[in-house]
Amino acid sequence: MTRRSRLRAPAKINLGLRIVGRRADGYHELESLFAVLDLADELELGIEHADAPSVALRLESPGSGAPGGASNLAARAAELFLAETGLALHLEIALRKHTPVAAGLGGGSSDAAAVLRALAGFAPGALARGRLAELALRLGADVPFFLDPRPAFVRGIGERIEPVCGFPDLPLVLANPGEPLATREVFRVHDLLHPDTTGPAAKAAALPDFARLRGDPGAWAPLLHNDLEPAALRLCPAIGRLRAELTARGARAVGLSGSGPTLFGIFDSHAAARAAAATPLRPPAWLRVATASESG
Questions:
Q1: What is the mean pLDDT of the chain?
Q2: 170-293: which CATH number, 3.30.70.890, 3.40.1190.10, 3.30.420.10, 3.40.50.300?
Q3: By Cβ atoms counted within 10 A, which residue in 39, 203, 249, 251 is the most buried?
Q4: At what angle do helices 131-139 and 73-85 cross, to 10 degrees?
């Protein structure tokens, strides 16, 4: 008998990102405030007992740019869970993409975490306490955050997660040049621009005052600095034009999410965000109204 679950995998934005060190193994230490969006991928997971473990993934969004089959991060998460637990299950994953691929919004990482959450719920006790987070980190730096997707301050290489309370609803417009940007390549260029980042992490930043920010969206502006933006801009000059475009349309603050190329503008109201996005960009660039909130 097949057990089926419908899963939601929300996207995220980074409200500022600092590279505070680079470890001897090449991993970067970072600090960033992660916020959850109302933009999400949809997955359906079918689970049934079998003679041997197996995973099949069906991509229901042709043309999304997401890899299919075993190379998809959701399928890799399922394979890793089965390998670690030794469970003989056949898993069928149907994935409908809404979050753009290689956009700095964490879509693939969120898909992987959704699968891990569902499998952990199906087989409670199959993994030792804390082991699920370790598996998530093996899949990618953003995956542990999505195991419990809510606003959080993330440090280290993605494993130190501090949920935050009182996060305000943020009316946003997402802007993307319509071209993917590989995270690995952005970090490579960042390291070329900053060859001196190897060493111990810098002093941790303080959490922002959400009560003050709730009443003044423009106060976010100095907090949205992203250390990866110079590298992303070199690889994708359209980022600079989109930043200016969001500002011209009334954004009170503009930031780059993750390694890009997606930018987000924070607006005074949802009505102002909708008005700003009413006139589309020239394809393949796109705009989308979104909301960041405590619940996504």
A1: 92
A2: 3.30.70.890
A3: 251
A4: 140
